[in-house]
Amino acid sequence: MDTNRNQDMAENFPLIQDSIYNNIKIANPHATKHDIILAAEKAKVLDFAWEFPKGLDTWIDDSRYPLSSIQQQQIQLARKYLRALS
Questions:
Q1: By C-alpha distance, which of 14, 49, 9 is closest to 28?
Q2: Which of 10, 19, 60, 69 would be 27's cystine partner, CB 3.0–4.6 Å?
Q3: For residue range 3-50, what is the model confidence (pLDDT) as tens digits?
């Protein structure tokens, strides 16, 4: 599988039970922290992430920290932005 196809899959891949940060980083595993934060900011993920106790390091869990469908879409969008930065 080529790299572009892997990145396309990451953008559309369902969220995994991991941190918000890692759910964005999956689009580009070699991205810097700065780039991940820029992508999160551009997709407005930071608008809701800072409401959680650990911000971007908050573990996504359906029971403890459920995300709305809009928030999930914002994370998907952050993945797309992160891919564009690479």
A1: 9
A2: 10
A3: 555 545 555 678 999 999 999 999 999 999 999 999 999 999 999 999
Tokens representing 71 are 């928030």
Give all domains of the chain, ordered by start, each with its CATH number: 3-85 (3.40.50.300)
C-alpha separations of 23 from 27, 52, 79, 86 in Å: 8, 15, 8, 16
Render 23-67 in DSSP notation, one character per residue.
HHHTT-TT--HHHHHHHHHHTTHHHHHTTSTTGGGPBPBTTTB--
Distance (Å, whole) CA 14 – CA 37: 20
Radius of gyration of the CA atoms of the chain, in A: 12
Instruction: Please state, in angstroms and rounded to a whole number, the distance separating the CA atoms of residues 65 and 63.
Output: 6
> Cα–Cα distance between 31 and 43 in angstroms, integer?
16
